[in-house]
Amino acid sequence: MKHIYNNKILKDRRKELRHNQTKAERILWRCLNRRQFGNKRFFRQYSIGGYILDFYCPKVRLAIELDGGSHIPSEQKLYDAERTKYLNGNNIKVLRFWNNEIVNDIDNVIAKIIKATK
């Protein structure tokens, strides 16, 4: 099987994204980094295939994607749908949250993530 995880070609881009997190990414990472989901480890800016995921937990094969205003245009919606189809085809579940959900209702977001990690 072809190696599809954390492709070295995308290493610099992953590093750049980790250093330039959005406010929503910083908030969620503070929660995910504490292993409060049954001691399941999440990684940020993890690549699978040609896609870089905002957050990923290999143990439960769960990707978490945060969407802001750039995800509204129809071209971006098509890209997101293709990406989700690819990940689902690799047995990876995808949860998507709007940035404002993270900032304004983190408790509800955490509850949904806990449910998805069981």
CATH topology: Endonuclease, Chain A
The fraction of residues in strands falls at: 15-25%
**First-residue to last-residue Cα separation:** 28 Å
Largest sheet: 4 strands, mixed
Q: Order of strands side by side in the largest beta sheet?
A: 1-2-3-4
Task: Give me the CATH superfamily.
Answer: VSR Endonuclease
What number is the mean pLDDT? Answer: 91
Which regions are unreliable across 5 or more consecutive residues at pLDDT < 50? none
Shape: globular
Count of β-strands: 4
- Determine Rg (CA atoms, Å): 14 Å
Individual helix count: 5
Helix-strand pattern? HHEEEHEHH
Tally of domains: 1
Protein name: DNA-cytosine methyltransferase
InterPro entries: DUF559 (IPR007569), Endonuclease_DUF559_bact (IPR047216), Restrct_endonuc-II-like (IPR011335)
Pfam families: DUF559
Domain DUF559: 11-116
Question: Can you offer a commentary on this structure?
Answer:
- It is a single chain.
- The protein has 118 residues and is an alpha+beta fold.
- The chain has a single domain (8-116), classed as 3-Layer(aba) Sandwich (Endonuclease, Chain A).
- The protein has helices spanning 11-19, 23-32, 74-89, 99-104, 106-116, and strands at 43-48, 51-57, 62-67, 93-98.
- A four-stranded mixed β-sheet has the order 1-2-3-4, sandwiched between helices.
- Strand 2 (51-57) and strand 3 (62-67) form a beta hairpin.
- The longest helix is centred in the last third of the chain and has 16 residues, at 74-89.
